Fold this protein.
Amino acid sequence: MKQKVNYALMSVLGFLVLIAPMLTVVILNWEEYTAHSYGGTIKLTAGGVMAAVFLFLMVLGKLKMPRGIIIAGVIFGFAWLLESILQDLKLLSGMFLLGETLYYIFFQTILKRMRDQLKEGAPKNE
């Protein structure tokens, strides 16, 4: 049981490290993003929640990328919901690269090892 809790905590921590750089940029520029369009706050919040869910599923290894019309619809939905931050796409993609790099360096191998131990049914440390 303790291994599962540790794995869950490491997954959440890895997720937070992954999104922290992008989230910082969005928080710092929130006023600018929401000032340009009516309903911008709602659209940004919905898009941000969708993006967070996708990233969390990616961290857990549960995200399988669909093909064809589904991926086109997902891309369109993100573009429509997050249109006010598209002007900072270069900055945000750089922050995503930074978060992904930090996740890769500090969490990916640890989480893989923990996942493998859980699958093998390693002795429980209770």
